[in-house]
Design goal:
This protein is α/β, with parallel strands linked by helices and about 400 residues long. It is built from 13 helices and 15 strands. Helices cover about 35% and strands about 15% of the residues. Bound molecules: glutamine.
């Protein structure tokens, strides 16, 4: 009898496994742990938004929308950006609705990075960046975020490693990928950082990809400095945003990319053969909701309360908190716990924490391609208070 043979092929991503967010969510569900790993809320969105999407479906808005997205939604997006960041994008030629932030990032990288082009990434970085560069056959150039520590070794703040970035630039540099508010550290960029970046790229052909999916979550009276608000950077940047994050609907997978006309035109060439278009009724629902509600203006306040609640609870445990200026993530150092597991690497520690203590988190090493270990894990606090309270009760035992 002939043995069935499975054809072999060369992997396009030989070093990549299943994304940590999927792995940890599966483990959390298997172990019935409280899932503070993958970033998503455990509460619902505004019912009005659901009604608006529902209404669009019942009004038969169920066929393909225009390739770049529903026109009304693109207008609302342009209007929102103008009102917050004072930059007027043309909704016709400069805004594209995407199937979430990750697709926006992937498509942006694919459309501008050619084989051999270098792309600068500041690590820790969201785990889709490097594989996107590799799929485009670009060369990822990693520079590490600078960590400032106090005399006791406690992390005080993070800083953009400007010297290292400048040193990493060559004639082959095509793109710099930045992210503020930053996943996983919660660090936010300052105006000086944007100015510094603008100085570095001035007079070059270097493009910028700015991942701003947590733009509406910044704390302690700080403001989000969008690349859209920077007159020089905006002319060479893809700006990525996500409705899933802003409206508590991560499963809808809808976001957008704003970029100047020439960049958007290349972006759409790839987008049209990658996803083609994005869910129609959701786009109408979002567009009507945006017309009526300025929900995003209250989001920082909403999440700041959750951050404070979670921090207050965590301070009673032996975890050491790192700063969280934005996003819905809180990082914590577990090396001071008085248990043998405090010596585990981050990934093993997270598996143990999920299985034995019933709280899932994400190892920071997942945000470094070479898996750097610093004894730090990431919790997501986009949860109801009762969920956070129960997680803290479990963590308190350690
Ligand atoms: N951005 C989310 C996080 O960091 C996860 C998104 C995903 O799972 N792809 O948790």
């Amino acid at each position: 009898m002939d043995k069935k043979k499975i054809p072999t092929f060369t992997s396009r991503l030989p070093d990549v496994g299943t994304t940590i967010f999927t792995v940890m969510s599966a483990l959390a569900s298997e172990k019935k742990a409280i899932n503070l790993g993958q970033g998503f809320p455990d509460f619902s969105c505004d019912r009005q938004l659901l009604e608006m999407v529902n209404e669009a479906m019942h009004q038969d808005q169920n066929q393909y929308p225009p390739m770049a997205g529903v026109s009304e939604l693109r207008q609302e997006i342009a209007h929102k950006i103008k009102s917050i960041y004072r930059y007027q994008y043309d909704p016709v030629d400069e805004i594209t609705v995407t199937a979430g932030g990750t697709q926006g990032i992937f498509t942006a990288v694919m459309c501008c990075v050619s084989p051999g082009d270098e792309v600068i990434v500041i690590e820790p970085a969201y785990d889709s960046y490097i594989p996107a560069i590799q799929m485009a056959q670009g060369v990822p150039i990693r520079v590490a975020l600078e960590v400032k520590r106090d005399a006791l070794g406690k992390v005080e703040s993070y800083q953009i490693p400007w010297k290292k970035i400048e040193g990493a630039i060559t004639e082959k540099t095509r793109l710099i990928m930045i992210n503020s508010p930053h996943n996983p550290t919660g660090m936010i960029w300052k105006k000086e950082d944007l100015n510094h970046l603008a100085d570095i790229v001035h007079g070059t052909e270097i493009l910028v990809l700015s991942d701003e999916v947590y733009e509406h979550m910044v704390y302690d009276q700080k403001v989000h400095e969008s690349v859209s608000s920077h007159p020089e950077l905006v002319e060479r940047s893809f700006v990525i945003s996500s409705f899933g994050k802003t409206y508590h609907v991560t499963g809808w997978k809808v976001g957008y990319v704003a970029a100047p006309k020439s960049m958007t035109s290349e972006f759409r060439k790839v987008h049209q053969f990658n996803v083609f278009t994005v869910n129609t009724p959701v786009q109408y629902g979002l567009s009507n909701y945006l017309k009526e509600q300025k929900h995003y203006l209250g989001l920082s306040n909403f999440y700041e309360k959750k951050r404070n609640f979670f921090q207050l609870g965590l301070r009673k445990t032996r975890f050491q908190l790192l700063p969280s200026e934005g996003t819905y993530f809180q990082c914590a150092d577990y090396t001071g716990l008085n248990i043998p597991e405090a010596k585990l690497n981050e990934s093993d520690f997270c598996c143990w924490l999920t299985s034995e203590i019933g709280v899932a988190a994400i190892p920071l090493s997942a945000f470094y391609t070479k898996g750097q270990e610093s004894g730090v894990i990431r919790f997501c606090f986009a949860k109801q208070e009762k969920t956070l309270e129960e997680a803290i009760t479990r963590l308190y035992k350690l």
